[in-house]
Amino acid sequence: MGSDSAIVQAARVSYGKGTKQINQDEALIKYLMRHHHTTPFEMCEIKFHVKLPIFIARQWIRHRTANVNEYSGRYSILDNEFYIPEQVAKQSDNNKQGSGEAFDSSTSKEIIDSLINDSNLVYSHYEKFIEQGLAREIARTNLTLNYYTQFYWKIDLHNLLHFLRLRADQHAQYEIRVYAEVMLDIVKKWVPLAYNAFIEYSLKSACISKTGLEIIRKLIKGENVAREESGIGKREWNELMSILGK
Amino acid sequence: MGSDSAIVQAARVSYGKGTKQINQDEALIKYLMRHHHTTPFEMCEIKFHVKLPIFIARQWIRHRTANVNEYSGRYSILDNEFYIPEQVAKQSDNNKQGSGEAFDSSTSKEIIDSLINDSNLVYSHYEKFIEQGLAREIARTNLTLNYYTQFYWKIDLHNLLHFLRLRADQHAQYEIRVYAEVMLDIVKKWVPLAYNAFIEYSLKSACISKTGLEIIRKLIKGENVAREESGIGKREWNELMSILGK
Amino acid sequence: MGSDSAIVQAARVSYGKGTKQINQDEALIKYLMRHHHTTPFEMCEIKFHVKLPIFIARQWIRHRTANVNEYSGRYSILDNEFYIPEQVAKQSDNNKQGSGEAFDSSTSKEIIDSLINDSNLVYSHYEKFIEQGLAREIARTNLTLNYYTQFYWKIDLHNLLHFLRLRADQHAQYEIRVYAEVMLDIVKKWVPLAYNAFIEYSLKSACISKTGLEIIRKLIKGENVAREESGIGKREWNELMSILGK
Amino acid sequence: MGSDSAIVQAARVSYGKGTKQINQDEALIKYLMRHHHTTPFEMCEIKFHVKLPIFIARQWIRHRTANVNEYSGRYSILDNEFYIPEQVAKQSDNNKQGSGEAFDSSTSKEIIDSLINDSNLVYSHYEKFIEQGLAREIARTNLTLNYYTQFYWKIDLHNLLHFLRLRADQHAQYEIRVYAEVMLDIVKKWVPLAYNAFIEYSLKSACISKTGLEIIRKLIKGENVAREESGIGKREWNELMSILGK
């Protein structure tokens, strides 16, 4: 529902004659994105049918501004489909929430086999419970978090872009990032002008703190800035330097 | 966006094999409405372009689940269009928020003329302010609440029905009720099965309190129930008797 | 945050002089609940710290109007704590989503032992994964849905009562109903007047459909009504008769 | 409801052992704000009682995440209180939505007198309508947008900070900015650590676009960047240079 022109149409009602000067749609959409005038982007709406592992569904559902209809294990029998990573990685040291370097191939195989075995085992018992007539709402509690669920998920473009900004980020778990990347492609085809503005002013932008801006001003003047005197911590400093290409 | 079949499609994903028995769309939609399974109705979305007086826009906007882009008096010049009721009514005695009986025709004319005069007067000064170059954001504060604004208003079907239940109600102000009635007609054409279920289980239904249900049970048994012994107040009693056709 | 008097205070601002007549707090709160004037109830807010199995957390989180901070298996190691029902029941025949009659004791024991064994098994592998240094975000996917998580959950009173109406209902899963019942007790102590109004006008009330009301009117007049001629289905008829104590 | 320590408490549940390293509350709150981990800030809640002109209430109410109870002109009689600016300014040329330079004192006086006269006039007719017994819901439509209303407004800290970021901004209308500034002082006293983090990472921060970051990287290297070759428009360029102190 909606398109780039629905965004423009809503903006021209909101800002009326004030938008006459910006006579090209592309420039207007960029202007809206740049100034966080988010409501015109809410005029577009999209519905996805998503199949995804339960542990990813649990992250996904935290975005509260969407409409959701999820497959229910109370009413229905879950299929024997579960997610196993193609390769497994170690807990990252410096990024508390992410994955780090790869395992050697024999440990990797051992872990993956163990994941597969347990998934098969719990499903075989789930099936047996169902045959015995156990209430589905209890039988399903024996399944592991890598089992697939599915839902219809409907959201407006503004909130979708907010979701994609967080979930296409490198700090997001790999398994949700791959969904975000596919959805970014869909957005690109659906609303190309909004997509470009999103890349420029949101996804590839950076928010620089008050102190960060002061440092940048000094650096541009050619002054030296020492991390220790800057008033910001080591990790934040490294992030800033990485943004500045230093 | 969406239709009766989108509701059915979402419900069948949610409730899966549990919905196989209800093989007709109409019966399924009635079942969903009756049991307050509201999420499938959220799969339909509609956008209205509404022109309405500011005092009505202020009531309307209190429904927080919609997406809105309103004409802005900060950016644009408001048109010389205002709302005047065709006939004016007295403050109701027993309904604290509503309108009661009509005025005699001469008082009615006097009031309506006064409303028109003031509307014209404040607009002539507004126009003069704009000519003088006064900031629009201040100039508009001289307009009365009956001036027209407009917005795009986008909402999902579940929340639209909730809006219509409240605003098509006889306790709603007449001036918003006429909008609600037009919107009800649109819903009827758009999603006829959902509309019928809404009329049956929501708009024309009644919520009966715990004590009200006890009274009904006695009445059905043929017992007499005195208001004084029922434990409920006079006004609530009258409402209950009116629902029961007594 | 807030109390019965905060509800009253907000209502008196909203409805101003219109509420002067209702000079007792109890009557005013009943009036607000009866007429679905819900915003004054939003002035009270409560925060719970809840420990609950993941399959219940997944139902709980669908209520989108709350603020939530949940324990994260990406950052932290989950404890070896899982939920096992004290007794297991068969899938209900007439209630598609619920539990029905109990198993004989030997089948019951067999099922419960199987649930316990699998829970212990997947945790032992989870622990091994963590020791091997596997990324936590993947290791946790091997846990079953009966493992405990925890969250802070903060919500306003109006939305809490809506949650409790749905989750204290007999159609809700037993495992979430026990939480709802404890929370009802807390509400009773916190805002006793709002609690009483909620029981009378919401939890123990019934919404009667348009056709249902017509049937009730006939029954009160002493007329006979045959199910077949009533225009409503068998299940709906039975529910109505049960409400009417027939 | 809540304090800096409620934010910390919620974050420590969410991120569990992952937050042990950050053992000081101040550093943790900064970390959360910097990384847009917004949910812990939702654990604090505040209620304001605000008296404000209707045209400001209309902007304010667009923030949909708050709970509101507003004084109703349908139930109650509005007081004879209206807002008149101390000094009036011309429509800004380069800021389409704002106020620009001041008028000469005689034009200023003329405009202000006109605003006062109209406000008094419409109220005198409003009073007369009420005396005649006109329904309040119609009588109030004769009042101008500068008349005062009031509401209770309750919101969580995360959404309050979002409101303050937009409304304490120089692009916001002066008349709402003065409210935002008073509220910022209240936040400072209530949750001083969150306030400081907000100033550093949000209010005084700047989001730099993809192209903007490329320009900064060149400037830091001592390269010259011409606006015409930069790929960004004149207004955006000026804003960037202003941020960079050039």
TrEMBL record, chains A, B, C, D:
Coiled-coil residues are none
A Pfam family recorded for this sequence = Thy1
Q: What is this protein called?
A: Jg8601 protein
**Stored InterPro entries:** Thymidylate_synthase_ThyX, Thymidylate_synthase_ThyX_sf
Molecular functions per Gene Ontology: flavin adenine dinucleotide binding; NADPH binding; thymidylate synthase (FAD) activity; thymidylate synthase activity
- Span-the-membrane segments of this chain are none
Gene Ontology terms describing biological process: dTMP biosynthetic process
The record's annotation in CDD domains points to:
ThyX (cd20175)
